[in-house]
């Protein structure tokens, strides 16, 4: 068990989930199975590599050692169950920007608004605790659920990178979204 006091992000306005800073204790076979599940990882870069427990532990250790990466587990408030992860990473301190990425690994939790809630919580953290001025995210164009979650959480479309990635061997657009710090007061759930 980790002795470090972990950061926990929650809000009365977001009653269904909370975010907890990741620790080695979160490395589990369930987590590994999510990363290797073709339905879960179809839009994740992890899909290109088979994942195992050692790789997940190495990843978590690397994140915990990097001050520009902040990874949180997404947990159900009702039972503390870990259902996915969300991260503010790729932070560029000179520009005060960071990238938000997430996945909901527990398929029974898809389509319930948990991603939007997690995005709002991590956005508040990025602006208030990390003092960033802009958060960015990107989604493969067919990943409509992810794009909708960001837009519902107050993000705006920044643009489309045409044929930016390959998906199943075919060029695929990347939808880019962003949120500025001054828009924090406009977040749907947290106000």
From TrEMBL:
Gene3D superfamilies: 3.40.630.30. Pfam families: Acetyltransf_3. Residues 17-156 form the N-acetyltransferase domain. One of its GO terms (molecular function) is acyltransferase activity, transferring groups other than amino-acyl groups. Keywords: Transferase. SUPFAM superfamilies: Acyl-CoA N-acyltransferases (Nat) (SSF55729). This is N-acetyltransferase.
């Amino acid at each position: 068990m980790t002795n470090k006091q972990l950061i926990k992000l929650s809000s009365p306005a977001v009653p269904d989930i909370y975010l907890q800073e990741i620790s080695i204790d979160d490395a589990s076979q369930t987590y590994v199975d999510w990363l290797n599940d073709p339905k879960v990882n179809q839009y994740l870069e992890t899909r290109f590599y088979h994942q195992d427990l050692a790789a997940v532990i190495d990843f978590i250790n690397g994140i915990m050692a990097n001050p520009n990466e902040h990874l949180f587990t997404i947990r159900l408030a009702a039972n503390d169950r870990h259902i996915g992860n969300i991260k503010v990473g790729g932070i560029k301190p000179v520009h005060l920007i960071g990238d938000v990425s997430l996945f909901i690994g527990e398929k029974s939790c898809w389509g319930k608004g948990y991603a939007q809630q997690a995005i709002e919580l991590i956005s508040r953290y990025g602006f208030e605790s990390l003092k960033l001025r802009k958060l960015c995210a990107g989604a493969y164009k067919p990943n409509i659920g992810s794009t909708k979650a960001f837009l519902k959480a107050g993000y705006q479309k920044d643009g489309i990178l045409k044929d930016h990635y390959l998906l199943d061997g075919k060029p695929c657009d990347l939808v880019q979204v962003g949120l500025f710090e001054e828009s924090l007061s406009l977040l749907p759930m947290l106000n």
